[in-house]
């Protein structure tokens, strides 16, 4: 096990009918900017619940943050924050709204002229405007971590950053929001959380025995409740476990003391930036090829995963490891996710080369848990994924 | 799953050779009282490491906090805190030293004349003197929670309390401390952590699917590494996983959204108070009888535990549940723990009745996950445990 430092100060308020607790979480003298997405919260009752809870709060709204939060839109929100002398941010939405809000929390305190520089320089902000969240879409774990991903249409880029000042002060997780989430987004949520765990687990045996078992616990729970939630979003027990699993998948706990991969995300982000494919689906596209390409480096963990998560008991290490990849792909198919890039686009020519070039240009010369995956390797993996 | 609120702000610094990081964690202008136990830290090098890290800090020492931290001793420490105008506490020790330090953090800000009243009234302090810990004995989880247990020799009482102000600001967990821990204390540590998980898990199926799996993960890890650590405390991988498992067993995570039992602890505390039996050993004494006595109420969970943790695949629910109890007792025996009270004392007469009377006098009329265990039930369980 590697040395680690771990602190997660976010207060989680979890359970049915908890959105009203907002009243107690936001300081009475705060001037709040409430941020949300395309307006689904106005159809599912969340908007009304938030407004009721904050009836006495000095509050301005900023809607329209798109999936894959767009830098230009966020810069409009930043203007509002400065002009209106906002002191507290409230994200009401899924990972995109929360990531965008986090970026604004950092941008509001940023002293440079162009906040995009924070992303390019992978800065780790130590100060930020306080913010809370009301989660409406379980998936990314952003509600209990300090990371964010921002997209910039102008340059077709999607970049990540994070920092100790970017944990939400609180996050409200009411599983009842799940009842009105479209199936496509539920499928994406299960897939996103599942892949988050894989990225932190599917490396090499690193002596994090408890971390491994926690990761397997989340995977097993998602396998158990994911299909149930998709079939019946009103199944509260399944929904609550789905929601808590998504949070635990990426709140930092399971990554402590063990190596992380994250190359699947790096390649997946490019596919979203280039083709607009849903984030979760890009992960499902890249993961099987990534594991096949890096089979030798990952086969012990793949075999452990096959044994413990999928009850594969027969065969050699190689057999079990390969079965683990097949089970993963079959699970994505069971959810209704296509796992070949050719099923999403026919304009593939030059894509893999472009991604390799971008990685090279950014200096990303060694990705993965051993920093050994070159841009050329990524090019081959993306081609395998077509 | 039940609604819950969860926040754990303690910063964990984990890994080999991390005690030196103390320098950065304690404010430069703090006046520190360093608290420790019987002096083992002066033999194993921890004392020197702490003093070196805090060479430039204004620091006073208070040693001699006994196992089962004694109220009278803590009141002596409180005098020092007040006389010396201490502003920061540093616990260097195991659960007893940390619990004692937590109590002092609350007592330093308590406005009444007799801090014991906080325990009697089960107060939940919202203010306390800041404190950090250097953990020298993995077991109780006190390094990452806000609970404490204090003993009072004068009245032969042992009472628990906790509150949001009583989380350590930081805790340093260096698994290298394990190499010098006596076998008896390692055995106690494994048993203590194992029982902590059981108390939060062995109730009834409550829809906390992920919480169940996390609990099982900790139990499985303790079963895997516990015997290894006892056999060879220099096995770093086993020791690190043991240490992290003890912390995760009682840092609040696995109890969120699910019922807790804790009746084993309530009965065990009395056995420590009355006979001076090591805390962990009282838990191993009470647990098997408790589970047999409450078999019908707990058998679904006992069977799930037997299946998932001990790979018991044959038989009915009742068969599996009973096998789960037997496996648990066998595990304690494997560790070298005696599980019958008669193996610890022959002055048993009247003990069970005395414990029942104490519970009645304190108004503890319904313990356990359904608040259904009466003092008379406790009397019978303690008799079964003899």
Automatic annotation (TrEMBL), chains A, B:
Transmembrane segments: none annotated. Signal peptide: none annotated. It is an enzyme of class 1 (oxidoreductase). One of its GO terms (cellular component) is cytosol. InterPro entries: ADH_Fe/GldA, ADH_Fe_C, ADH_Fe_CS, BDH-like. Residues 189-358 form the Fe-containing alcohol dehydrogenase-like C-terminal domain. The keyword Plastid does not apply. One of its GO terms (molecular function) is methylglyoxal reductase (NADPH) (acetol producing) activity. Keywords: Oxidoreductase. Its EC number is 1.1.1.2. Residues 9-175 form the Alcohol dehydrogenase iron-type/glycerol dehydrogenase GldA domain. Belongs to the iron-containing alcohol dehydrogenase family. This is Alcohol dehydrogenase (NADP(+)). It comes from Cellulophaga algicola (strain DSM 14237 / IC166 / ACAM 630). The lineage of its organism: Bacteria, Pseudomonadati, Bacteroidota, Flavobacteriia, Flavobacteriales.
């Amino acid at each position: 096990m590697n040395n680690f430092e771990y602190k997660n100060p976010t207060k989680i308020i979890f359970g049915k009918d908890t959105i009203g607790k907002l009243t107690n979480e936001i300081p009475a003298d705060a001037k709040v900017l409430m941020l949300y997405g395309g307006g689904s919260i106005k159809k599912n009752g969340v908007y009304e619940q938030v407004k009721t809870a904050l009836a006495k709060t000095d509050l301005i709204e900023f809607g329209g943050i798109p999936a894959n939060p767009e830098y230009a839109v966020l810069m409009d929100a930043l203007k509002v924050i400065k002009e209106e002398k906002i002191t507290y941010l409230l994200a009401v939405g899924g990972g995109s709204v929360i990531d965008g809000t986090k970026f604004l929390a950092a941008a509001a305190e940023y002293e440079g002229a162009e906040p995009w520089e924070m992303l390019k320089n992978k800065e780790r902000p130590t100060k930020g405007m306080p913010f809370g969240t009301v989660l409406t879409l379980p998936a990314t774990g952003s509600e209990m971590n300090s990371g964010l991903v921002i997209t910039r249409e102008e340059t077709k880029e999607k970049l990540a950053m994070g920092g100790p000042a970017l944990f939400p002060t609180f996050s409200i997780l009411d599983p009842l929001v799940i009842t009105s989430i479209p199936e496509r987004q539920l499928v994406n949520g299960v897939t996103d959380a599942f892949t988050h765990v894989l990225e932190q687990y599917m490396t090499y045996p690193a002596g994090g025995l408890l971390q491994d078992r926690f990761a397997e616990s989340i995977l097993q729970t998602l396998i158990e409740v994911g299909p149930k939630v998709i079939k019946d979003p009103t199944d509260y027990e399944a929904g609550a476990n789905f929601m808590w699993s998504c949070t635990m998948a990426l709140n930092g706990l399971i990554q402590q003391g063990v190596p992380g991969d994250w190359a699947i995300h790096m390649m997946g982000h490019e596919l979203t930036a280039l083709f607009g494919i849903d984030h979760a689906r890009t992960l499902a596209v890249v993961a099987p090829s990534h594991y096949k390409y890096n089979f030798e480096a990952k086969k012990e963990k793949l075999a452990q995963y096959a044994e413990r998560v999928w009850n594969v008991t027969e065969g050699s290490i190689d057999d079990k490891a390969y079965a683990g990849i097949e089970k993963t792909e079959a699970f994505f198919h069971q959810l209704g996710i296509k796992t070949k890039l050719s099923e999403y686009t026919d304009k593939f020519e030059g894509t893999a080369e472009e991604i390799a070039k971008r990685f090279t240009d950014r200096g990303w010369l060694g990705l993965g848990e051993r920093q050994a995956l070159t841009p050329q390797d990524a090019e081959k993996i993306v081609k395998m994924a077509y």
